[in-house]
Amino acid sequence: MASQALTTALDGFRIEVPSWGFANTGTRFGKFAQAAAATSIEEKFADAGQVHALTGASPTVALHVLWDMPNGVADVPKIRELEQRYGVKAGSINPNLFQAQEYKFGSMSNPDPAIRRHALDHLLESIEIAKALGSRDISIWDADGSNYPGTQSIKRRIEWLEEILVTAHEATSEDQRLLIEYKPFEPAFYHTDIADWGMALHLARKAGPRAKVLVDTGHHALGTNIEQIVAWLLHVDALGGFHFNDRKYADDDLTIGSIDPYQVFRIFHEILSAPAAATEGVAYMIDQSHNLKGKMEAMVQSVVTAQELFARAALVDRATLATLQDNCALVEAEECFRDAFWTDVRPAVKAWREDRGLPASPLLSLKESGYVEKAAAARGAKNAGSVSSYA
Amino acid sequence: MASQALTTALDGFRIEVPSWGFANTGTRFGKFAQAAAATSIEEKFADAGQVHALTGASPTVALHVLWDMPNGVADVPKIRELEQRYGVKAGSINPNLFQAQEYKFGSMSNPDPAIRRHALDHLLESIEIAKALGSRDISIWDADGSNYPGTQSIKRRIEWLEEILVTAHEATSEDQRLLIEYKPFEPAFYHTDIADWGMALHLARKAGPRAKVLVDTGHHALGTNIEQIVAWLLHVDALGGFHFNDRKYADDDLTIGSIDPYQVFRIFHEILSAPAAATEGVAYMIDQSHNLKGKMEAMVQSVVTAQELFARAALVDRATLATLQDNCALVEAEECFRDAFWTDVRPAVKAWREDRGLPASPLLSLKESGYVEKAAAARGAKNAGSVSSYA
Amino acid sequence: MASQALTTALDGFRIEVPSWGFANTGTRFGKFAQAAAATSIEEKFADAGQVHALTGASPTVALHVLWDMPNGVADVPKIRELEQRYGVKAGSINPNLFQAQEYKFGSMSNPDPAIRRHALDHLLESIEIAKALGSRDISIWDADGSNYPGTQSIKRRIEWLEEILVTAHEATSEDQRLLIEYKPFEPAFYHTDIADWGMALHLARKAGPRAKVLVDTGHHALGTNIEQIVAWLLHVDALGGFHFNDRKYADDDLTIGSIDPYQVFRIFHEILSAPAAATEGVAYMIDQSHNLKGKMEAMVQSVVTAQELFARAALVDRATLATLQDNCALVEAEECFRDAFWTDVRPAVKAWREDRGLPASPLLSLKESGYVEKAAAARGAKNAGSVSSYA
Amino acid sequence: MASQALTTALDGFRIEVPSWGFANTGTRFGKFAQAAAATSIEEKFADAGQVHALTGASPTVALHVLWDMPNGVADVPKIRELEQRYGVKAGSINPNLFQAQEYKFGSMSNPDPAIRRHALDHLLESIEIAKALGSRDISIWDADGSNYPGTQSIKRRIEWLEEILVTAHEATSEDQRLLIEYKPFEPAFYHTDIADWGMALHLARKAGPRAKVLVDTGHHALGTNIEQIVAWLLHVDALGGFHFNDRKYADDDLTIGSIDPYQVFRIFHEILSAPAAATEGVAYMIDQSHNLKGKMEAMVQSVVTAQELFARAALVDRATLATLQDNCALVEAEECFRDAFWTDVRPAVKAWREDRGLPASPLLSLKESGYVEKAAAARGAKNAGSVSSYA
């Protein structure tokens, strides 16, 4: 059952974990603190290293500049050391353009040129950090927008955004990429400056050849056909990568495949249908917010789920499918497609893990390792600070 | 132009403001602090009093138990004094069933009976506070739910909820009401225990005759016909009141009528179409989160907008409309209906204000009063604590 | 692998096929005629009989009164004969309250009492037909509503609807049921008189004890948690049955499980979680519109997919799951739940079929039988009438 | 009150009516025939002429090739004569790529090259018709897509589409334009080949400089900020025009502004905010389906509503607004913006009509003219053919 297609697929599949996925997060209504949550960049690296040790599939960790490297480039040596110590490397670099009080009415498209300059400076610093760390990708999430009709000029904000992204792109080196994310709403509730893939694509092209589009699977209106957008971005050679998560309503940031696993399978199918050359640079990244699940359990579960869904997609008999599609043999095509989805790949993935010297069941091994309990003991007091109690 | 219908409508229109609407709020991505935001229950009363002084239409302020009365019933004398000093009364009492760490997996429908007991105790305390303050309404927002399929038993949680609400209802006095709110998602992202009006209605009936349904206009799936739900709740004598706000996407908590003013008009039309007896107890309350707009400006604007939209709805010629509806004269009925919506009631509302000794233009008077600047000077340092800076 | 749970589940699983599912259908933009589509009630029975012969799981066929029994009760002997000849029985009876020109502005809630009387008469005739055929269920889909705000009185239409349903219920015999369907929009585009489960539940209760709610899985706003509604309807003993289909956008009437198979699994899980007594009357029915897929292929595929997803749901270890839910062991509960979903039940279902003397692969057997080709030859000329050509 | 801005705006505002808007239409559940509906191209021209005579704002009528000119270019002289007789000119030309049986699995992106060639031929014929009629715009609505995951290759269909559009563009003359429409779903229910503005923009650019994007206001996922898309299309010089209509749920094809008038105002504001040069070619067209409203009444109402909302948008004090936007004076900016929306422009529009020798109240004049009754008398028998009766 561990077919060659599946083995090749699993050998080539890597998914980046986010440093912020190990720290406490919440909703606007509050945060439920976990004793074992990471409270420092070192703890985040330790956790990410453990996930990779268990799964063999997450060798890099995404960093959020303000949260993980508050001293900017000066923090690079520390990160280098953590990479060595914990066996995972720094991955994509994420500027923070939404947290500072200055950004109340926008960062890159704020009407105030001084604030736009702040935003640009932070972007440029992030690019420098990425260079120093050898990180290829700078992932730009622009949270800007407006909350009420008429309160901002949509058009002028486009122009400001273009200007900054062009300048940022000029600062990148040949082997770097700017990934431009889009999102329809939240935290802005009337208009978001980069609301959909069409806007992100325009900006990426305006910025330059090393700018690509970043697809966060939770950033679409309900009903949107995400795999079609993926196919289009591949078609126009502009797919930079993914922030994977799942949702039922809005940007719920749930575990990948937890609500609609068939959709993830379809996304992977589009990628596997494209020429290898078109997809080799595509970055798979997790961007989730586990408010209730245990951080470590959820991250291991996420990586495993991604692997299994990728393996299912790898099993699609694409040659047969193409013929059935050409013949408009709808039911047969659908059955061919779903045969792969319904195949229980778990035994084969387990076999692959054992072949590669990895734990057969990463979640079980995590549990048996006592890692979470130890982390809770070591970090509990630090996390307790954010814990209030009703009693 | 200041027709009798309009005068009567405005004389009878009252809308409650929320204490939390004067304090800093934000999204899960952060909070932009305002220097003039209220930092204490006294400041909230001062602000609410000012809104009422300017509009004459917001004589009560909703209180959030944990935030406004941390000592419970012991805080009642203090509230009494603030009512006197600032000329607004305590309105609905809002228990807090979402903030304590114990509520991570639910409050009233937590699988742990001890936690459910905590939630019940808080409800009972809230009812006691309401009695002591002479507040008719206890507004219950149940934030409980689950984030992932299979992780909780939907059915058993219904039973737990029923049990608690029955007990809480027993504790209310004859002149009190339990208002049960519903919401489809957030902060729970897979299922919310009270997700729609049908669930809230069942629970209200199970609880007892003094339990009614609370409609938050932002708590519906996109596309939902909210005025139809209002008509149904009136039909079954179960409409308790409203939390007004507007939204374009999810529970965006924007200013009433800022995105879809025609919808608010239609809601008011349903209420004005019902027999007066059926609607006299309906509570109009604002529940908004002005993350970017100035708190005071936004609240005055909200009250004024609500007045104007209510005035428009009061102008509908309902007798003529009924005949046109009976005759299925669609275009004529629609034109009759919209004639009221398109009427510019602002001059008439201004005239009504002057007749009642109120400022003709509340927003302008607020600006000229310098109230916000004085508040900022007095409160700025306290609010600065939550302000971080990029520079 | 063919566990006892699975065998019991499959032995007990029956899903009704709709007569109209074998005839040509389309969208408002046109109809693509199929040569093999059924053009008469006899051909529909022949097709339904063939589906049942292949799957062993669809022993009844839903009838649409106007389309299948234009002479009303007088057509009963003919139906009886077809039941005998084709080995499937008449199932639910579906009145038609949307097609007649009189119903332009509504049927049961038309402002014109004469038209409401027409609608009632048709309901009463449908009940008589059902009695004569021994059909338990009359499925009422009320397509009424309005297209523009203000053009109809939402409230008065509720009253008219109540009145008719009470009268209809009185006409039912003890062993009959009225199933009341809800739908948020289409063909009405502003308000639909029975828009959601809360409205349907109220009307069912008003009508009487033999009225229940019918859930069409395509009749919800995007994002709605359908399995939660199922759990609630079971909780209040009001779940009458299902019209199964799938959709990505609106009421797309696609094949069950073709867009979101996990959702169907979750619905079945809620049913299997309820006490057997609460669910024994629940009717499973298909209501799909295969505009492009071959009618027979699609129907066989639908029944097989329903069986397989029901089998998956039957494998959930509900005792273990309940404990994990009680302990709020989220990841473990989810893994327990999904273990059943990911199990490849196809070999076991195939084994069950062989045990029961059924074709191991119904779709393959359909193909090998040449049934569709024969039908096309016999019916092609009749279907060609509706075929126009560009050339 | 009839300010210069408003007069200029009204003098320059023209909106095209669709020939198909005068004929009977319906939903997939049936069609309610109107006695006065147009049954021939002559009657459609007569109706359009009457709408223009009443409003002075709809001098052109959009034609649907297959329905209105079944003989193609040979029908041009007849159309010329109708233009003369009824005082309205042929406007945009609409190919029909969805009705022929050959198009079951697609037209321009059908896997069968012969069918793609049919589609291209029809496009080329439509371009020739447009040339012969002196029509600038060919409006291409591509209804193609697929209903089930895996049944078609999304990617290859993009390539086929590009190929055809490039060829069609080559056939256009310098003063012609191809308008490419997008739509997320219906009649295709899994993927639509041109699903959003990003896809339409790519195809327009691929096709050539005379291809632009056509925005149908009903063709977006719920929640989409349409005015932002308009601003973007203006920014990239690719806005070709609009198909105006309103909706609450899907592509409901309701009267413009009947559900959300504020949204139409915001769209017009974006256009009026752009440089005149950028918007002078933008085509305003109505595309509605009045299944229940009287055809003529609804069309007159649509044109009048569009005029009034355009007039409101013309009143926005854009210089003041820009300053307030720059200052992030949110509440003041919003009040400035909405001051125009809330202004009752009806008296001023009436005055403008009288100045221009038009009926002060087009709807009233239509009623008094007896036009509809006369049309019903003349056309009733022809329309009765499609009327069936329940009785």
Automatic annotation (TrEMBL), chains A, B, C, D:
GO terms for molecular function: L-rhamnose isomerase activity; metal ion binding. InterPro entries: L-rhamnose_isomerase, Xyl_isomerase-like_sf, Xyl_isomerase-like_TIM-brl. One of its GO terms (biological process) is rhamnose catabolic process. Transmembrane segments: none annotated. Keywords: Isomerase, Manganese, Metal-binding. Residues 74-258 form the Xylose isomerase-like TIM barrel domain. It comes from the Bacteria. Pfam families: AP_endonuc_2 (PF01261). This is Putative sugar isomerase. The lineage of its organism: Bacteria, Pseudomonadati, Acidobacteriota, Terriglobia, Terriglobales.
